[in-house]
Each structure stands twice: as structure tokens, then as C-alpha cells.
Amino acid sequence: MSQQTPVSRVIPAWTAWLERWATPEDLAGASTAEVLLAWNRLGYPRRALRLRDCAAAICEKHGGQVPRTREELLALPGIGEYTADAILTFAYHRHCTLLDTNIRRVLARLQGYAYPPPSPRKSEREYAASLVPSDDESASQWNGAIMELGSLVCTASKPRCEQCPLASWCSWLEQGKPENVQRKGSQGYKGTHREARGKIMAALRNAEQESSGAVTLTSLRELSGLPEERFSPALSSLLNDSLVEKTSKGYRLPH
To answer: The pTM is what?
Structure first.
């Protein structure tokens, strides 16, 4: 839920989600429309469906219990390396090398770089692994501590270096905080394909909540407020991703 979404927006959705679906078995029995409505505007609604698919796989293959090994976690729908490692370290306090945005930034600055490369490299993983304590509990505490350090102190902009306990080991600070010449600005949201998809999904969620049934193509375009050249590609991609279904009466969230 918190991928590319502020935690302040995630907390109420996360709380409501767990109150409604406390176990994998509860979530596995939910309909697609229910899951998408609960996900609301958190972004990337495919993640909501993968979470439901993941819950079903946990019930079918693991008796409703989230697996405790990296291999079994990676075999679940929608679970990548970061999520598997996050589950191991935070849920089960197991030894692993966790690399999230904040941790990668801290480790990059210790080595003299303002920011890490766009995606983790072998050398970066090896360096991170060399710093993680060997025992399970200490490794879990290390991962949590470095993540919090990056989130609260070693931030992307205006880092609080004077408060950092690692300042005396930081090569980036020692060099005078040089900027990465290859760093690229983040992509905006307005005017993107993602925004167009989000407008269509919002219109369909409203229709679902108002029990107005399927929405005709003309009405959906008007409700989305999108011009044709943006509306049609966005709707097609949502249909291809099974996030919208077409019925004889129009379009709606999948049931």
C-alpha cells in the first residue's frame, strides 16, 4: 500500500482493510469489486488484485499461514524480492539483506554518492549484505534502524547530517555533499497514462458505491473528464488488466 503513496494516506486504508479482512482466508473470499473499492485511491490497483491472489495462494498451498522462507514467499503472486525480505525481517525477525529506497540512500551516502542508482546492482547488494549482523534478531533491528535513519534523518532533500549517528563514517558528507550528475527527476503524475486510468477507476468506483450499475461508454468518458485520445487507451489498458469489465449495459468494476 505504501509504494509511491504517502504513509499518512495509507494508515486509514490499511486499518480499515485489516478490520475487514483480518486473515488471508478472509481476503481470498472477497470479490474483485470489493477489493478495488477498498483499495480506493492508493494507486496501482493491480496490486490490490495481486494481494487477493496472494491470499488465495497462501490458503491453498500453506494452510492460511504466510510462509517463513524466502523461496516460498517469492513463489507467491505479487511478491518480489523487497516484499519477501520485508516480511522475513519485520514479521519473522529473520536474517536477510533488505534494500528499500531509504536504506539504499543511506548506504550510497556512506560510500560517497548522493543517491543510489535507479535499480540495485550486484556490488550494492554485496556491500549491504556485508553490513547486516549475522544473527536473526540483530539483522532485523539493523534493517529497521537503517530504514528509519533514511526516512527521518538521511532524507532525499535537506538531510539532517548534524543529527546523524553515522556522520563520521559518511564519505558523501566528507566530500561536501556532491550531487549525482546522473540523477533524474521523478516523473510527474498530471497528464500521464496513470492519471487517465485513475480517473476512469474513480468514476467506476463512484458508480459502484451509488449502486447505479454499469456505466455506458459515453457516460464514462464524460465522468472521467478525459479527452478521447487519452480516454480510449486508458480504458483499453484497464480492460486488458482485468480491472474493468464490459457488460451488455456498459462498463463496471469486475464482479
So the answer is: 0.80
